[in-house]
Design goal:
The structure is a homodimer of 420-residue chains. Chain A is α/β, with parallel strands linked by helices and 420 residues long. Chain A contains 13 helices and 13 strands. Chain A has two domains: 208 residues, 3-Layer(aba) Sandwich (Rossmann fold), CATH 3.40.50.450; 145 residues, Rossmann fold (3-Layer(aba) Sandwich). Chain A has a five-stranded mixed sheet with strand order 3-2-1-4-5, sandwiched between helices. Chain A has a four-stranded parallel sheet with strand order 7-8-6-9. In chain A, helix 1 packs parallel to helix 11 and helix 4 packs across helix 5.
Chain lengths: 420, 420
């Protein structure tokens, strides 16, 4: 059997370990030259396929590909681009198949979240319909941890570890000074729709009641009076209050706290910032001096404090994607299966893309304490293993030694360009 | 000679490595039982001396004291409390001497910045005047790097390393997505009066022009038109612009950018946030999608990515403080002397507290590039060695294993309390 080429692309927001999945795909493909020719990576994700901007990864050295394991961001570029509905806009899918065909691509690996599973699924359908043999495999990735079926999502564990270390450290800082200075520290974390990342901060507690003493979840409608009362209680008890708030925190009516009417000097509504909003509220109502931090991209790109568990899983799903493809599986996604909590054991399973596509996994309600300000033991059991182990990148001259690939595009073969 | 006890206190904002200085003091004192009895630590800094709240560090195990090397924050508590002028308010100084006397304290170690040097200096004067023999030694500490005479300040190198790694990582993130999504990333860093921390971000560049493409210094009056023009140029050239802005950034008339009229829903002026302010400005004027982060306390408590050079210097100044005291030096501060840039070599020197007190070291003007948006080679030569080397803390269950001391207070001996 003549080997066929493979296409690999990353999609959506990147993570500290998505390149480890790329590394898993490429290294595993290189072990099977009898079946897989060249791995082409989409420049800027799926846009690279539509525009026929394909990166020839065979021009990258083994050493540079191995360095993807410790390099955050997206080595080939990613994008926010959702393919249109297959019925309404068949042209995009046909274009994809046309490009795949032109480069003799027999394997389609798509590394992303919910939308990407949907895309990979549709590509598998259209290729079948068009009679073009293409093995389509999704590879899970998202810091939001919201994919179904898989026990967790590669990318999440590293954000969780970053948030745990960061709030532990900042809490020690504020605690040091609280007697005569700042009493409130607020760290804003990602998670527009679910409180997975905020929940992880609960792992920073040694005992049930220490810092962070308050977590504000998107799942719990924000009640200003109860919140202020709790802040005040904690400051009176501990001398300070360290808290972690989700960017998705919202009022009972569904309005985000971050949309609550902050305007700038010109009267324009100012975007975002739950942390400054709550800090100001506390200052006005309780008079406490505050500090706040917004981690934003720092959290999801913090490869320097990635979770080894997360890294290994990110690599493993990339590796498994290729192995499953070679076994002839199609329209599936390798997933993480939890075998045991403590000591943690996991393995790779598989899910049908049809079952993953567009399904969002919510955080179980029993992960949030009844008072709404912290996590339960069930949450701890689930979360704790995901931050286990360290995987520091190499450092040169005191800086993380992140790789920059050559990213050489292969010559185009399709005559027409595609407007995207 | 009968051994005498020692007093040690931390002052002002804490750092990732101030406890390493405490470790240096206590471990070195333990090596000299013939001269130093117990090291008492002030609970919440100098307040502990005024209130006679002295922590008996002899009750802490060698192992826990050693763990201070890798624990951020202030192990005994710190404070923002400046002693009043010695002429106007002699009572405070007399109280200090009274407490020292009651506990047979012959060594006064004060770990802090400019104000603290001033306090230590005054204590040395008053003790002399009152005929109470007290050896007063300052120990340098500040993330702001603004102490004179010493080549650098313990605490700064670790913040610098954190900022370098963070902006490198976030830049990879934004670069990954810029083709179809966010084009602007702004990281706000500390440094109200000088741009040392902002300047450190320049080390993240591999070449002169890559990320962070713009640094906004407090030393360079903010010119909105020039700034916007540069942002636009960079986005058009690179596809994205990652920048680091100092919280101390200001207009030509001295107003801080963070005070530029942002109000909340209630019309109250909102504190802080240069990053969101600039992000909004860019959005309004250039229309680019943005993300921003404010590192705040995360940066100065990030022991998980401390600089080994910084850590070693923090320990060394603590150790030297005790050794110099035992040699009979008084009213001095051990300082870092740079012997050579590359390879970096340093040694410990000493400065008179009188020369350190209340003097602020500014960043040399020739550290800032002529266009005002980056650093020069001179700055690179100075900064690069300070972030060298890694000193990861131990981790247990995926979390940094920071120590919590017992912090047992010794019984009070002075009859009167002191209102503070």
């Amino acid at each position: 059997m003549k080997p066929r080429n493979a296409f690999y692309a990353q999609s959506g927001g990147v993570t500290a370990v998505i390149n480890a999945s790329a590394c898993g795909v490429i290294e595993t493909a290189r072990l099977h030259p009898e079946a897989i020719g060249t791995v082409y990576a989409g420049r800027n994700g799926i846009l690279g396929a539509l525009r026929e901007e394909l990166i020839d990864t065979s021009l990258e050295s083994d050493r540079d590909i191995a360095a993807l394991r410790h390099t955050p961001g997206s080595a080939f570029g990613s994008c926010r681009y959702k393919l249109k509905d297959i019925e309404k806009q068949k042209a995009e899918y046909e274009r994809l198949i046309e490009v795949m065909k032109a480069h003799d691509i027999g394997y389609f690996f798509y590394n992303g979240g919910n939308d990407s599973s949907d895309t990979a699924y549709k590509v598998s359908q259209i290729s079948e319909k068009m009679g073009y043999p293409l093995t389509c495999i999704g590879i899970p990735k998202t810091v939001d941890n919201d994919l179904p079926i898989t026990d967790c999502c590669p990318g999440f564990g590293s954000v969780a570890k970053y948030i745990v270390a960061s709030i532990m450290e900042a809490s020690l800082d504020i605690q040091s000074m609280c007697e005569s200075s700042t009493k409130i520290f607020i760290l804003e974390v990602m998670g527009r729709h679910a409180g997975w990342i905020a929940a992880a901060a609960g792992l920073a507690q040694r005992h049930g009641e220490d810092a962070p003493q308050i977590i504000v979840f998107p799942e719990v409608p924000f009640d200003q009076a109860r919140f202020l009362q709790r802040v005040d209680q904690v400051v009176k008890r501990d001398g300070y209050c360290a808290m972690v708030v989700s960017e998705g925190a919202q009022f009972a009516d569904g309005r985000f706290l971050s949309d609550s009417g902050v305007t700038d000097a010109f009267g324009h509504s100012q975007l975002g910032g739950v942390a400054p909003m709550l800090a100001n509220l506390i200052k006005q109502e309780l008079g406490y001096k505050h500090h706040w931090a917004v981690a934003d991209y720092l959290q999801r790109s913090a490869r320097h404090i990635a979770s080894l568990t997360d890294l290994e899983q990110a690599y493993a799903v990339g590796q498994a994607a290729v192995e499953l493809a070679l076994k002839g599986h199609n329209a599936i996604m390798p997933v993480i299966k939890r075998e045991q909590d403590q000591p943690y054991r996991w393995s790779i399973g598989e899910a049908r893309l049809a079952d993953v596509a567009n399904v969002e996994k919510k955080m179980p309600r029993d992960f949030i304490r009844e008072d709404g300000f912290g996590i339960t033991d069930a949450a701890r059991r689930y979360l704790a293993p995901l931050i286990e182990g360290e995987a520091f990148p190499p450092f040169v001259n005191g800086k993380p030694d992140y790789v920059k690939l050559r990213n050489v595009l292969v010559p185009k073969k399709v005559e027409k360009s595609f407007p995207v």
